[in-house]
Amino acid sequence: MIVALIVSALAAGLAAWVILASMADVVEANETRWLSLKAAAGNSALRATLPFVRFVFYRWASSFGIVQSLLRKSRKNLTRAGLSTDPEQYVGDILWQGLMTAVVISVIIVLLGGDTAIFLAVLLGGLWSFMIQPSLLDSKAEFRTRQLYRRIPYALDLSILVLETGGTLRQGLEEIAAKDDPLAEEFRIALAEIDSGATQRLAFRNLSRRVELEPLETVLMAITRGQEMGSPMALTLTTQAESFREARLQQIEKLAVEAPTKMAFPNMMIMFSVLLLIVGPLLMQLMSSGVF
Questions:
Q1: pTM for this one?
Q2: Backbone phi, then psi, for 290, in 5-degree steps?
């Protein structure tokens, strides 16, 4: 009982500390409306020490293998998702969120008289840090990758159109980068690297590493080799566009063939549910009448 009270007091104090620090951040974001309150919160020791505590907590947690694995996966998915967040900062934030989740849940359970506060709180906090948040980031990265994949044929057609009207490859890439989609964002980064002094091969290689999409990597390699060999760029891009559409058509046909097999189990469940709805009332009536 004494241990539970001590844990509850520490948890409540820590939760209050976090709330006060968060309030200071809110005040800072609304400085025009809450100027006087900002001046008071701006010098708060809680607000000043919170980043230090989070840093110490992350450095302690980063020594574990599961956290290092989470860091490697997060670094990859942050790049694929197009986020500029530092991987260590991201992992530190979700670990801190998991800790705060565990603290708040343990306080609630203890106040309600539960005896499994620590176990359940740690379980939910771990789920938040190591499953829920990484899964959300992975879903965001997969969604952006699908958007990139869908934009490739349109980007190729646009570049071919620019080249056929007398433009250069650079102008074609600039037209792609002028759009508002993930592929345009990646090409804007690549063009900025080229303008900063990097070679086109290096910029395209960095783009391929960020995106990790094989069809786009194939197109970029074909462009680089075509320029090195002096091939007509419009012909090179036309060939790549045709190859991409053929591969996409084959993928669609493969999915169409696999669809009946994947739908077999859901169809069985639907048929079972319909049968239960039809036969269930009849069986209930027969049982109530004493037939069974």
A1: 0.68
A2: 90, 15
